Amino acid sequence: GDSVTQMEGPVTLSEEAFLTINCTYTATGYPSLFWYVQYPGEGLQLLLKATKADDKGSNKGFEATYRKETTSFHLEKGSVQVSDSAVYFCALSPRTGDKLIFGTGTRLQVFP
Amino acid sequence: DADVTQTPRNRITKTGKRIMLECSQTKGHDRMYWYRQDPGLGLRLIYYSFDVKDINKGEISDGYSVSRQAQAKFSLSLESAIPNQTALYFCATSGDQALNNEQFFGPGTRLTVL
Questions:
Q1: Residues of chain B neighbouring A32 (CB-CB closer than 8 A)
Q2: E strands of chain A, at which residues?
Q3: Which end of chain B is more exposed for a tag (fewer CB within 10 A), N or C?
């Protein structure tokens, strides 16, 4: 079945460091791909998305490119801030359905 | 004002008790979902509903039931709570599938079963 695999955390960085959180997926067909972010004590909110191969989603300095050849959707940011500390979830949605399938989440901790 | 609200935000109960978690939304969405979040397991889908007359089981529906009372309301019940149902529960909504399935989440309910 369809699935999402994320790197385990926590990822610990100093402010202004470069961030990569790896995400790979297994799916039949052509899913849509998402990154959601969960700040402490809150629900998830959409960070960015991509709906077809080679699309790049971007928001708040974060980027991710839909790579069909490597079935990946890695999240990157050039310079992280303390306020980026959160849990990040990669997810996919199959073309034929509406359900989201989530990865296990990666906690990011950014220190000043 | 929040678009997706959940009540209660925190609940502690005992094994065997019946518990209802409620979700309301003002987004006008037809589709609603219940997830649970456990450390190291991410979010897992419990039940989902595409409209008032449609209820579907998700990945982990055993021990849970739901009721879609109206377009705006979707309740999750634990008929006889057990300790391994201790988790963070999220309600979510989404609109037309053509909008690529973005889901909007409530703030969560932290449930502890003793």
A1: 100-101
A2: 3-6, 11-14, 19-21, 23-26, 32-38, 44-50, 56-59, 62-65, 75-77, 86-93, 101-102, 106-111
A3: N
